[in-house]
Specification:
Blueprint (H helix, E strand, L loop, with lengths): L1 E6 L7 H15 L3 E6 L18 H12 L2 E7 L7 H8 L3 H4 L3 E7 L7 H13 L3 E2 L4 E3 L13 H22 L6
Parallel strand pairs: 1-2, 1-3, 3-4, 4-5, 4-6
GO molecular function, one term: FMN binding
Family: Belongs to the azoreductase type 2 family.
Protein name: FMN-dependent NADH-azoreductase
């Protein structure tokens, strides 16, 4: 099983990166191969719908990893009541063929007081347009869930995230078996 973990934050010091690192650690512990996209490190050109932009090395890397992925964990900070522009730009380079019938977990980091819900709703709408199998459960973290080194230390948050990651792995396992319903 291959899971693509996407960090939609373009910031160098990012709480969303802390979240994606925690997700990656959980998947690694399960022996699952992790593919990554990090908006802070993988600088994509602005999506303009031009074929020549598809040749950009970072766009090729994004497309290759999305094609290989069996499932996704998509994480974003909340900017102005939505996902980050950097994440939306990355998703614009992908299409329904990359997400169709692939389980997708959504997670966000808000500014506190349960911020991040609007980013989750925004991501859910976009992922529906890309035919992803978005989990009904989702995860939202506050910055206080992490210590100064970026480790998730809040027990309830860790437990909630584990539930979402386990749901993703379980659904992906079922889909990989390709059981036909008659």
């Amino acid at each position: 099983m291959k899971v693509m973990v996407m960090n939609g934050s373009p910031r160098d010091k990012s709480m969303t990166r802390n979240l994606t690192n925690t997700v990656t650690d959980q998947l690694d512990e399960k022996g699952i191969e992790v593919l990554t996209f990090d908006a802070g490190f993988h600088n994509l050109p602005l999506f303009k719908g031009r074929k020549e932009d598809l040749d950009h090395p970072e766009v090729q890397r994004l497309i290759t990893n999305a094609t290989k992925a069996d499932a996704f964990v998509i994480c974003s900070p909340e900017y102005h009541n939505g996902m980050s522009g950097a994440l939306k730009n990355a998703l614009d380079f992908l299409g329904g063929s990359h997400f169709k019938s692939k389980p997708t977990a959504l997670a966000s980091v808000g500014g506190g007081g349960k911020g991040g819900i609007n980013a989750l709703n925004n991501m859910r709408t976009v992922m529906r347009g890309l035919y992803a199998l978005v989990l009904p459960d989702q995860f939202c973290a506050d910055p206080t869930c992490f210590d100064e080194k970026g480790y998730m230390v809040e027990t309830n948050a860790k437990e909630r995230l584990t539930i979402v990651v386990n749901e993703l792995v379980s659904l992906t396992s079922v889909i990989e078996k390709k059981i036909e319903v008659k």
